[in-house]
Structure formats: structure tokens, C-alpha cells
Design a protein that fits this description.
alpha+beta; 4 helices; 149 residues
Length: 149
């Protein structure tokens, strides 16, 4: 069965249940070599979580065990994203998982407080609150310190 690395609002198991129609199981995971930032998404009236390559960083998330048929749903999520197979760290080991990443560099945009709270809720299911806060603040700082906004 395929593994899907979720980040942002999709780390919330309830959201994954709604979006994907379920999953077999999930566990805490990280994506080495990537960092969190936020890019403009009209659906959220501001920035939405995006992962960018960043050597030495680790993106927080969760890995879900899904059905093969659900991969098609992931590919239809957004034309601006595409599925990649990357190694994620779950259960203390590196495993191959599908990850949705942007096709092109996007305009960095701060997230709305409402969106940020949804991400915080999802990540807090899997990661300690202090780690989540520092992680989200680093993502906000990347937007504020970038020339891409």
C-alpha cells in the first residue's frame, strides 16, 4: 500500500478523512531536506503551506497509509502541485512516500490567522506544541525575509 506524506492542513486526520475518504493508518513523519513556507492560495485568502528544498532542514508532517486508488485523488488536488516520491522519516527509519510539491516557484504570502490555526491543529496531533510553534514561526520568517513576496 502506498504511503503519502502530508503537511499543512492535511496533517489533521479528520481533514484527510474528508479529503481522501479515509486511510488505513498514520504516523508522525518528517521530510528531510525541506522547509516550510507559505505561498498564495486564493482558497485560503492568503498563504498556504508549501515545502521548499532546503538542505539541513526537516519539514514536519504525517505519513498516511492509503489505497492505490487514492493516488488519483492526490493528483487531482491542484494543477499547481505534482506528486513526487521522496524518502521521509517515519518510525525512526527512511521510507519512500508520495509528496505533493509545487511545480513552480510561487509568490510567498503570509497565511491568515484562521489558516495558521488549522495547520497548527493538524501538526499538533503528531508533533510537540513547542516544535510546531517554532516550525510555523520559521515558515513565517521565510516569507518575511524573502524577496519573493
Amino acid at each position: 500500500m502506498p504511503l503519502f506524506f502530508a503537511y499543512g492542513v492535511s496533517t489533521d486526520p479528520e481533514r484527510m478523512q474528508e479529503e481522501m475518504g479515509g486511510y488505513k493508518s498514520y504516523q508522525t513523519a518528517t521530510l528531510p531536506g525541506h522547509a516550510c513556507t507559505f505561498t498564495y492560495n486564493p482558497e485560503y485568502d492568503g498563504g498556504a503551506t508549501t515545502l521548499l528544498p532546503s538542505p539541513g532542514d526537516e519539514a514536519l508532517g504525517a505519513v498516511y497509509v492509503i489505497e492505490e486508488s487514492q493516488l488519483a485523488l492526490l493528483e487531482e488536488v491542484d494543477d499547481e502541485y505534482e506528486l513526487h516520491t521522496l524518502q521521509v522519516r517515519a518510525g525512526g527509519e527512511l521510507v519512500d512516500a508520495y509528496v505533493l510539491l509545487p511545480r513552480e516557484e510561487e509568490t510567498l504570502t503570509l497565511p491568515s490567522p484562521k489558516y495558521l490555526e488549522r495547520v497548527r491543529k493538524g501538526l499538533s496531533v503528531h508533533h510537540p506544541a513547542e516544535q510546531v510553534e517554532a516550525y510555523l514561526q520559521a515558515g513565517i520568517d521565510r516569507v518575511n525575509n524573502s524577496d519573493r513576496h
